[in-house]
Amino acid sequence: MKILLTNDDGYNAEGIRILYERLQKYGDVVLVAPDKHMSGSSMCRAFWDKLEVKQHEENIFSVTGTPADSVVIALHGLNIRPDVIISGINNGFNISTDTVYSGTIGACMEGIKAGIPAIAFSADYDDFTNAKKDLDYVMNYILNKNLLSDKYLLNVNFVKKSLNKTKGIIITDLGFRPMEFYYIKEGEHYLSRRRHLEYTPEEGTDLWAARNGYISITPLKFGNQTEYGLKELRNKVMRSE
Fold first, then answer.
1. DSSP 3-state assignment of 99?
2. Cα–Cα nearest to 221, from 132, 140, 152
3. What is the CATH number of domain 2-174+200-240?
4. Tell me: the pLDDT tens digits for 6-17?
5. CA 179 – CA 197 distance, rounded (Å)
């Protein structure tokens, strides 16, 4: 199996280096990732800028662009032909609405757009203990159950650092986590801040899994496609005719 590895924390971040080392047993791994931290970049692309690619080792490259740029450069510049794209391990969960902004997810979306299966891995902030412990468990679960698809990516979140033991893996939907965004001024600059509001996560969602000690695997379709919305709109039109 040929694996293209990328992330949004930078090519030398701890999470991606864990994956680079640990994924060798599953196939040939090539790492192509941003040269610096690019969190929150979603599928942003540097369409009008010149991108620089540096080769650091035989199979490790950095790109002066976004995670999505890194995937496109790998596929169409370096001519890498992977069987799967793996992004992460992100430093911080990618659950709920985080998935809209995430560069980790954005890189995988570029894979799905190109018809290549993709997996996004994320762990609790500044703690990869459970990710390292459970990575083989999750990879074997995905491969043995043939979960890879070119129709949707697999968004995986490991168990949070306050829990020492994983209860298992569950397939989840996206949950909704209410937040309050605000800015504070420091000198001439404004800094973004957010506050999590109280909520009860719905069972079967990624948020519920995170609270209850389960690894979540959430399928995410390309862009903003929604089977529920499509079905609902078609039903409304049929009822009105």
1. helix
2. 152
3. 3.40.1210.10
4. 999 999 999 999
5. 5
